[in-house]
Design a protein that fits this description.
It comes from Flavobacterium cutihirudinis. This is LuxR family two component transcriptional regulator. One of its GO terms (molecular function) is DNA binding. This protein is an alpha/beta fold. The protein folds into 2 domains: about 5-130, Response regulator (Rossmann fold), CATH 3.40.50.2300; about 145-215, Winged helix-like DNA-binding domain superfamily/Winged helix DNA-binding domain (Arc Repressor Mutant, subunit A, Orthogonal Bundle). The chain has helices at about 15-25, 45-50, 65-75, 90-100, 110-125, 130-140, 145-150, 160-170, 175-180, 185-200, 205-215; strands at about 5-10, 30-35, 55, 80-85, 105, 130. It has a 6-stranded parallel sheet, sandwiched between helices. Helix 5 (about 110-125) links the parallel strand 5 and strand 6 (about 130). Helix 6 packs across helix 11. The chain is globular and about 50 Å long. The termini are far apart. Mean pLDDT is about 85; it is low at about 145-155.
């Protein structure tokens, strides 16, 4: 049985970068680059046409920047998952694209070694942030005084096992690693993860990190 290929659309205002990424991604057997864009105007329509699974999007795009593209996708309904690939690592921008449903963020400096992993991770339904971006996000939550004032998060919301899993997720353990440490199946880990997110009313890993920091489950 032939595995389904992950269909990828690349959007960046530098053709050289697009060509380089395309050459790299074409070395992966289950990747297929189905479209490219050098401005933001027609990206949404292009993806509707080529049925891409993943959009790799730059922030700095001519005529319509990446933020406006994300806003368009959110308003019209996301036809694919979006990974931001940018020269910017400004925390304000990172938080903004997260609010606009971007599923990954990495800087161009680390694109070569991280982009393949990022695409595979996001395609499977998870989020992906490069190490430098993740550190910025975690640091911002750790240093945010509002977290210390927030009385919403209570340890009693979660069971002891759920607290263990929140801590391990926040420390970037994979589902497989958690299952091995706690001697439970990966399916059980995933079930716990879903239940935890439902209880905490969060949709992503960052919400779990906020909870872990607030309740001293991990050291900032």
């Amino acid at each position: 049985m032939i595995a389904k290929k992950i269909r990828i659309h690349l959007a960046d205002d530098h053709q050289v970068l697009i060509d380089g990424l395309k050459n790299l991604l074409q070395t992966v057997s289950n990747f297929e680059v189905v479209g490219t864009s050098i401005n933001g105007i027609s990206i949404y329509d292009d993806i509707i046409q080529n049925n891409a699974d993943i959009l790799v999007l730059d922030i700095s795009m001519p005529e319509k920047d990446g933020i406006k593209v994300l806003q368009e996708f959110k308003e019209k309904g996301n036809p694919c998952k979006i990974i931001i690939l940018s020269s910017y690592d400004d925390l304000k921008i990172i938080k903004e694209v997260m609010k606009l449903n971007a599923k990954g963020y990495l800087t161009k400096k680390c694109a070569g070694k991280n982009i393949i992993e990022a695409i595979n991770t996001v395609y499977k339904g998870h989020e992906y942030f490069s190490d430098a971006i993740r550190e910025k996000i975690f640091e911002s939550f750790a240093n945010n005084p509002k977290l210390k004032e927030n009385t919403y998060f209570k340890n009693s919301i979660l069971t002891p096992r759920e607290l263990e899993i929140v801590k391990l997720i926040s420390l970037e353990y994979s589902g497989k690693e958690i299952s091995e440490l706690l001697f439970i199946s990966t399916n059980t880990v995933e079930t716990h993860r879903k239940n935890i997110m439902k209880k905490l009313q969060t949709k992503n890993t960052i919400g779990l990190v906020k909870y872990a920091l607030k309740n001293n489950l991990i050291n900032p």
